[in-house]
Amino acid sequence: MRSRRSISDIVAVVLLIVIAIAAAVIIYMWLSGLIGSMHTSTSITQVKLEITGANVTYNGKGFNVTAYVYNPPGSPSTSITLGELEFTNGTLICTNSSSSTPRSLVVTPSPIAPASTAKVIFSCGYSSAVPAGTPVEVILVTPEGVQVTYTATVTVSTTSSTSISTTSSTST
Fold first, then answer.
1. 57-100 pLDDT, tens per residue?
2. Comparing 51 with 7, which gets the higher pLDDT?
3. What residue spans define the domains of the chain?
């Protein structure tokens, strides 16, 4: 009779240990945010923007950039907070945040509603001219941290300024 009682004591101890471990895992997951309240903030994966066209003009002191951004249906409303111009090897040419003009980035309309296109204009300083045919990237950044990239090549206009023709777009 004694052997039966010891087996049930062992089963009871094992069950208590399993219950304690399960409770600890549930509390950890709840504190980590895996279980609990749902977040209502906009996720980076939800924002899907695309640059459909861009024009960059060099005026001797810097660049004036105009880009057209499409926000597809199902994507939340968003805006653009930063504009950059880079060589395709990743070397930064200029950014609107380094510009001395107070309001150097304009998004019309802002915020960019789903299924609509917005015009983004920014300017940035650069002391050296970029040779014709040089590939460059226009990079726009949303408040959520989404970067939209558009690759273009530099062409020289007849008015002694440099403009950029558009070629392709990617979103990360």
1. 777 677 778 889 998 888 888 888 888 888 888 888 888 775 45
2. 51
3. 1-38, 44-171
Write 115-118 long-range contacts (CB < 8 A, 24+): 115/71, 115/72, 115/73, 116/70, 116/71, 117/52, 117/68, 117/69, 117/70, 117/71, 118/68, 118/69, 118/71, 118/80
Question: 136, 139, 140: which is closest to 164 by C-alpha?
Answer: 136
- What topology is assigned to 44-171 in CATH? Immunoglobulin-like (2.60.40)
Rounded to whole angstroms, the Cα distance separating 70 from 53 reads 10
145 or 37, higher pLDDT = 145
Per the structure block, which two tokens stand in for 25? 């895992």
- Exposure class string for 103-129: b at 16+ Cβ within 10 A, else e: ebbbbeeeebeeeeebebbbbbbbeee
Q: Looking at residue 101, what DSSP letter applies?
A: S
Q: Which two tokens stand for residue 54?
A: 């861009």
